[in-house]
């Protein structure tokens, strides 16, 4: 599903109105009806329930007026409060205001005074709040008075349904610069806005319902900026079919180069994950002094010893052995637990230009390239890098806060500069392809911020590349499946006690859920 900015959404709405002749009033009516459906999901029978609708002066408020009218017709008690100067309501919103007035219904203006007392009074008998104050027209900072009212609404304990966007949320970034409606449900019209998908916006949005308000589908799907929300349907479309006559070679052979003394778990988690996401054959190559430990740890995953320094860390001489192991492999996954020993750094830098199979670089393989992202361009095959914000900061020579301030832009710029797919981990993992496509991942939970979680993700991405998925799709699907496995595991074990092994163990269930 495409993800848009406020301006891009407005342009789609304008085209629908001006070029296709769909009256804005029709779009607004459709929008309002969908909000009513969600209100009914929350309240059940709305008859005699009290719904308080807060409107602003723009078309978001217009949607709110449509919601009020339909709920009234359904037998609900509806209170309508305007946070703006009613006289400033214009266009389609004014038409709906006129209808509301002709139905001899009241509208409380909060224009004068601080409005807090009237809001508190009305909320005492309210069963549900509809936030139709600001939508894609919101810019900058919420006004002081509106901010105080929003804080009262958030503290009311009443369910809140936000119209299009929680008021106070920046549609394009998901950032908030002050009070913002903490919605239980957000009904987004046409396409999800970026701010509803990125943190903290996704948190403020609550349950996101993306609804069709009859903007022509050809318009909605047409090629605009290639920003997508990774959905189950998209991942299902990308996953390879499994013919009954298939054999393990059909699903690719992965070589994992990972591990060092005290970090054998990273190698085994990565190898196990690659198998569990469907790779046909997986070999984990580790420093030779650790080889017997790995043989004991792993069953379905094969192992191979690599030259090391005797202290359980690879030496640059391992390059030749890795190149020969790669001769009958389809994908290389390198980095988990390798350590940042100078010999390992030298090995990674000398090995990469000699790699001719698609590869996933994670953890210490990325740390080996600190400040030297350009080396990534020397790999003779598609590359996926999977940095967390700290590794990304080291790779780009910047600070974590700069990485986190604009994750999409940082990932997209790095992808283009290094000609690789960048999977930037974090709340809402972002996948950026060199040619501009960006996928935002909706799955996962804070319980996954646990040692080894990234090793599992690396194995999942490698498995999908081995099964023939194009690099950016393998990264987006891998992030989706990894996050879904984490959600399934957290549902059973909670977030606090969740460990990476639980995520790995839930991978098959996650791939089953995708179908
Ligand atoms: N365009 C259409 O045909 C449809 C739009 N839909 C809904 O309309 C809103 C977008 O409406 P818009 O009139 O552009 O603005 P808003 O209602 O979001 O904002 C109201 C108004 O608020 C003012 N404003 C902006 N920022 C601030 C601020 N920081 N403080 C105070 N006031 C502010 C500004 O003047 C705005 O005009 C969209 O989200 C949909 O809900 C229909 O759903 C579909 C048809
Ligand atoms: K809103």
Automatic annotation (TrEMBL):
Record-linked InterPro entries: Carbohydrate_kinase_pred_CS, CARKD, Nnr, Ribokinase-like, YjeF_N_dom, YjeF_N_dom_sf
Enzyme Commission identifier(s): 4.2.1.136, 5.1.99.6
Binding site for (6S)-NADPHX: 59-63, 135-141, 164, 266, 337, 388, 455
Keyword Magnesium appears in the UniProt entry: no
Catalytic activity: (6S)-NADHX + ADP = AMP + phosphate + NADH + H(+); (6S)-NADPHX + ADP = AMP + phosphate + NADPH + H(+); (6R)-NADPHX = (6S)-NADPHX; (6R)-NADHX = (6S)-NADHX
GO biological process: metabolite repair; nicotinamide nucleotide metabolic process
Cofactor binding note from Swiss-Prot or TrEMBL: Binds 1 potassium ion per subunit.
Reported function: Bifunctional enzyme that catalyzes the epimerization of the S- and R-forms of NAD(P)HX and the dehydration of the S-form of NAD(P)HX at the expense of ADP, which is converted to AMP. This allows the repair of both epimers of NAD(P)HX, a damaged form of NAD(P)H that is a result of enzymatic or heat-dependent hydration.
Protein family according to the UniProt entry: Belongs to the NnrD/CARKD family.
Protein name (record): Bifunctional NAD(P)H-hydrate repair enzyme
Gene symbol of the encoding locus: nnr
């Amino acid at each position: 599903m495409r993800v848009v900015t406020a301006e891009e959404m407005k342009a789609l709405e304008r085209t629908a109105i001006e070029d296709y002749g769909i009256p804005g009033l029709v779009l607004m009516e459709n929008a309002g009806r969908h909000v009513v459906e969600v209100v009914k999901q929350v309240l059940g029978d709305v008859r005699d329930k009290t719904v308080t609708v807060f409107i602003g002066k723009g078309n978001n408020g217009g949607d709110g007026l449509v919601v009020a009218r339909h709920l009234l017709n359904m037998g609900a008690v509806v209170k309508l409060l305007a946070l703006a100067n009613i006289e400033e309501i214009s266009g389609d919103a004014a038409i709906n205001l006129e209808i509301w007035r002709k139905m001899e219904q009241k509208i409380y203006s909060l224009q004068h005074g601080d409005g807090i007392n009237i809001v508190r009074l009305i909320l005492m008998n309210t069963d549900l709040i509809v936030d139709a104050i600001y939508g894609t027209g919101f810019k900058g900072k919420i006004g002081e008075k509106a901010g105080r009212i929003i804080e009262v609404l958030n503290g009311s304990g009443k369910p809140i349904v936000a119209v299009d966007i929680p008021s106070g949320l920046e549609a394009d970034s998901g950032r908030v610069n002050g009070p913002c409606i903490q919605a239980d449900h957000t009904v987004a019209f046409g396409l999800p806005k970026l701010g509803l998908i990125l943190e903290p916006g996704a948190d403020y949005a609550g349950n996101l319902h993306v609804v069709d308000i009859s903007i022509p589908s050809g318009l909605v799907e047409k090629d605009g900026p290639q920003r997508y929300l990774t959905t189950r349907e998209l991942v299902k479309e990308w996953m390879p079919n499994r013919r009954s006559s298939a054999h393990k070679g059909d699903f690719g052979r992965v070589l994992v180069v990972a591990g060092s003394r005290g970090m054998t778990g990273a190698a085994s988690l990565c190898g196990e994950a690659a198998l569990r996401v469907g790779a046909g054959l997986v070999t984990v190559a580790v420093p030779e002094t650790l080889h017997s430990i790995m043989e004991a740890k792993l069953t379905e995953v094969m192992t191979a010893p690599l030259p090391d320094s005797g202290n359980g860390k690879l030496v640059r001489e391992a390059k030749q052995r890795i190149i020969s192991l790669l001769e009958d492999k389809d994908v290389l996954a390198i980095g988990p637990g390798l350590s940042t020993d100078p010999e390992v750094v030298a090995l990674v830098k000398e090995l990469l230009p000699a790699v001719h199979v698609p590869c996933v670089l994670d953890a210490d393989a990325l740390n080996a390239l600190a400040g030297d992202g350009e080396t990534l361009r020397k790999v003779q095959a598609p590359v996926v890098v999977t940095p967390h914000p700290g590794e990304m900061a080291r790779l780009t020579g910047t600070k974590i806060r700069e990485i986190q301030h604009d994750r999409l832009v940082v990932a997209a710029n790095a992808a283009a500069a290094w000609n690789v797919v960048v999977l930037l981990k974090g709340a809402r993992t972002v996948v950026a392809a060199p040619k501009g496509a960006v996928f935002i991942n909706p799955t996962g939970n804070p319980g996954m911020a646990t040692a080894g979680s990234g090793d599992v993700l690396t194995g999942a991405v490698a498995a999908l590349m081995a099964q023939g998925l194009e690099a950016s799709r393998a990264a987006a699907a891998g992030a989706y499946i990894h996050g879904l496995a984490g959600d399934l595991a957290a549902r059973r074990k909670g977030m606090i006690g969740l460990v990476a092994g639980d995520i790995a163990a839930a991978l098959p269930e996650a791939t089953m859920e995708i179908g």
